[in-house]
Specification:
Distance between the termini: 13 Å
CATH class of the largest domain: Alpha Beta
Largest sheet: 8 strands, mixed
Structural class: alpha+beta
Number of strands: 17
Radius of gyration: 20 Å
CATH topology of the largest domain: Rossmann fold
C-alpha cells in the first residue's frame, strides 16, 4: 500500500537513532510504498485533506542508512493512502495543532490519531493516571511553587508543559540560592504554567522508555544520564542500556495501554522511573533502534517489524 509519513525532512534523520527511519526501511522491506510530507505540505481543499508528497527510498552511506526523497513532489489526496503516520517531532506548537485538524479530514487511517495527539499532552495526561505517577502539579505562581517544594521535601523537578527532549528540565532545591531565578525561568516570570513534579531518587539510575504498539508493550530501553546531569534523555546525552520489563512496568502498561489504544494512540513511549510513570509520549516517540541494537534484533524480530506486523493486522481488521 501507499504509506504517507508526515515528518521532519528525511535528510535530518539520525542513521543510528531515528525510529521513523527504520519504519520507512521496514515498509520498503514489506513491499509498501512510502511517501513523505512536511507540515508546510499539508492542505485542506474543502473538506478533503491533501498533501504535497514525495516518494522515499533508503540509501546506504558511510554513516549508515539514510532516507532520501525522489525530489518529484506531487499533490495527492490523503484518502489515496492506506495509512498516514504522523511522525513530526515536537514542539507541539500552533503549526502542529493545525496539522492535526487537517489530518482529521484525511478519510483514511491516521496514526497516532489526531484527536488523541491533542488530548494527550505528554505531561498533563498523567493526571488521568495519578496513582501511577509521582506527585505532579501544574503551577505558575512563585509562592505556590515554593509551597509545593516544601511539601515535597525540598527537591522537585520543574519542566515546561510543552517541553520535549529534556529541554528546560530543572532540578529545584529549597537550599539553592538561585531558586527564585529558576522559578522565574520556569514560569516566564509567572506568565506560563510549569510542571512541578516530585523528585525520584531512582532517576540517578536512569529512566526506562517502554514502547507500546497498539496498547501492548513491545520493548524497553534504559536511558542513563551523564554524570552530574539531571536529565536522562538521549537528546541530553543519555546512554542506552539494555532493560527488561518487570512486574511494575507491566502493571503500568496494563493500566495505560487500553486507554491509549481506545484513543487511537498506536505507537507510544512511556517513561518510567523507579516504578513510577513520569511521561506519556505520543508525538513521534523514539527508541526502536536502541532496543534493536541492545537485543541484537534482526529482520522479523525488530521493533519496526513488530510495528508493521501489528499495523497491517489492524488495517486488515478495519477493512
Amino acid at each position: 500500500m501507499d504509506v504517507l509519513f508526515v515528518c521532519d525532512p528525511p535528510e535530518s534523520f539520525s542513521p543510528i537513532g531515528d525510529s521513523t527511519l527504520v519504519m520507512i526501511s521496514e515498509a520498503l522491506r514489506r513491499g509498501h510504498r512510502p511517501y513523505c510530507a512536511m507540515l508546510p505540505d499539508l492542505a485542506l481543499r474543502g473538506d478533503q485533506a491533501w498533501a504535497r508528497v514525495d516518494a522515499l527510498r533508503i540509501e546506504t552511506t558511510a554513516q549508515g542508512d539514510a532516507a532520501r526523497r525522489a525530489l518529484s513532489p506531487t499533490w495527492r489526496s490523503m484518502a489515496e493512502f492506506g495509512v498516514v503516520l504522523m511522525r513530526k517531532d515536537p514542539p507541539f506548537d500552533q503549526g502542529y495543532l493545525t496539522a492535526t485538524w487537517i489530518l482529521d479530514r484525511a478519510q483514511t487511517a491516521v496514526l497516532n490519531a489526531p484527536a488523541g495527539l491533542r488530548n494527550f499532552n505528554e505531561k498533563l495526561s498523567l493526571a488521568q493516571f495519578a496513582e501511577l505517577a509521582p506527585a505532579t502539579y501544574v503551577l505558575r505562581e512563585a509562592q505556590e511553587i515554593r509551597r509545593v517544594l516544601a511539601e515535597l521535601g525540598g527537591r522537585m523537578i520543574l519542566k515546561p508543559v510543552f517541553g520535549f527532549g529534556g529541554r528546560e528540565v530543572l532540578l529545584a532545591r529549597a537550599d539553592d540560592p538561585n531558586l527564585g531565578s529558576l522559578i522565574e525561568l520556569a514560569t516566564a516570570e509567572g506568565t506560563r504554567w510549569t510542571i512541578a513534579q516530585e523528585y525520584l531518587p531512582a532517576a540517578t539510575q536512569g529512566d526506562k522508555r517502554i514502547l507500546l504498539i497498539d496498547g501492548e508493550p513491545a520493548g524497553a530501553v534504559l536511558r542513563v544520564g551523564m554524570p552530574n546531569e539531571v536529565r536522562n534523555n538521549f537528546h541530553a546525552g543519555g546512554k542506552p542500556v539494555a532493560a527488561v520489563l518487570d512486574d511494575a512496568d507491566l502493571a503500568i502498561c496494563r493500566r495505560v495501554g487500553p486507554i491509549l489504544r481506545e484513543q487511537g494512540q498506536f505507537f507510544v513511549g512511556l517513561d518510567v522511573i523507579g516504578a513510577r510513570l513520569t511521561e506519556i509520549n505520543v508525538t513521534s516517540p523514539t527508541g526502536m533502534q536502541e532496543i534493536n541494537r541492545l537485543g541484537a534484533l534482526r529482520d522479523d524480530e525488530t521493533m519496526q517489524a513488530c510495528f508493521w506486523r501489528t499495523l497491517e493486522g489492524k488495517l486488515g481488521q478495519r477493512a
